[in-house]
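G., before I forget:
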Amino acid sequence: MKPAPFEYFAPDSLEAALELKAQHGDEAKALAGGQSLIPAMNFRVAQPTLLIDLNRITELRYIRKNGALRIGAMTVQAQAEYDGLVATHAPLLHEAIPNIAHSQIRNRGTVGGSIAHADPASELPVICIALDARMRAQSKSAGRWIEARDFFAGLFATTLQPDELLVEVEFPGMAQYTGYAFMELARRSGDYAMAGVAALLTLAKDGTCQQAKLVYLNVGDGPVEASQAVASLKGTKPSTDAFRHAALIASQKDMAPFGNLHASADYQRHLSAALTERALAKALARAEKTLKS
Amino acid sequence: VTIADYPISVTINGRAYQHHVEPRLLLADYIRQVAGLTGTHIGCETTYCGACTVLLNGASVKSCTVFAVQADQGEVMTVEGLEQEGRLHPLQEAFAEHHGLQCGYCTPGMLMSTYHLLSTNPRPDDKQIRKGIAGNTCRCTGYQNILKAIQAAAQAAAR
C-alpha cells in the first residue's frame, strides 16, 4: 500500500464535518476530489493522520444563480464544465475548466478542492482573482466571506482557519462591455502549464479601455496580477501595439517566475508575454461584440 | 495509531463484493488484489498515465487516486465488464481490428476512457477524441491507430 495509514471519516452532512474540524483542527485534512492530495499521499509527500472525506456531503454539490453565480465547494469540475449557468454567467470560468488536467481528473476533482489547495499552477485560483470571486468559509460556530485576493496566502496556503471549511464560491457577473479570455501552454495536454493567463478587458462606450485585468498562473507563489501592465492600458485605445507593450510590462516587471524543469524563468516570461498579447486580442474582440449588440 | 478496518460493499461489473479494507487501500489495488480483477492495470499511481481508468458511478476516474472506501455503496465498471456473454464489446472489436494496441498495457484504461467518452458524446470529432483520451498514455502505438479504432467504434454504434 502506498499511502501511510490514516484515520478515515466520511460524514454525510456539513454539520458533522464541521464538528470533526472543530475537534481536530489542522490535524484533520479535508479530502475533496483527492486529485492532488492522493498522488501526494501515494508519494508519501503528504502523510495526514486523519482524513475527513467530504464526498458524501451532497449538500455541497450545486450550481445556482441567485444574484451571483454560486458553486458548492464539492461540485466536480466536470459538472461545472458542462453547466449552462456557468457558460452564461461565468464564461471565463467555462473557458478555463477544460484546461484542468484530464477528463478523468475533472470527473473527480472539485471546484472547492482545487481552490483550497491553492496550487500556483492551478487554473481556478487565477479565475477567482480575475472575477473577484468570494469564498464562503464555515466553521462549527460561524461563517464568513473572504475576498479572493485575501484568500490565497502563498504556496499551497490560504487564510482558512484550522476549524473552517470552504463551502461555496461566489462569482459576481462581469461589468458591461467586458471581454475575456483564458489561455495556457503546457508541454503535453493536461500537464501543469508552463504559463497561463486570464485576461479581462472592459471598454467604455467610445471604445477606449476603461478597465483591464491580467492574472497569471505558475509564475509566482500564487495567482499573479499584472497591475503595472493593466495601468498602461487604462484610458487608452486598445491596439496591437498597446497590447504588446502591456505584455512586455507584465512579463518583465509584474512577475518574477521561478522557472522549473519544463521552462526556465526567461522562457516563462516569454510565454506569458505571447499569451498576454493573444488573450488581450481575444478579449478585445469579445468586448467589441458586446459594444455592438 | 491502529487503524480499524472499514467495511465496504462495492458492485463491480454487476457483481456485489463485500470486504473489510484499510482506508488507505487504493481502489486500483482493491480491484486487482482483493476483488481479483487484474484487467485493470496500474502504471504511475500519480493520476498521470490513465492505465487504471475505470468507471465509478458512471464517470471515468483514475482508480489509483481514489480510495476503495470511497467506492463503498458505489458501482464500478472495469474492462472485464465490457465483454458480454463471451462476446467482445464493439469497442474492443474496433481496437483489435484497427491495431489500436501493441503491448496492451494501456488498453484497459484506454477502453474505459473511450467508453465514457462515447457514452457522453456518441459522435465525437477528431479533436474531441484526442481530448477524451488525453489522460491516457500509450508508449507503443503513436495513438493514430487508437484514433482510428475509436472513430470506427463510434461509426459502428451509429449504424
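Chain B touches chain A at residues 1, 3, 6, 22-26, 29, 45-47, 50, 53, 56, 59-62, 64-67, 69-70, 72, 113, 116-117, 130-132, 134-136 (CB under 8 Å). The longest helix of chain B spans residues 144-158.

More on Monday.
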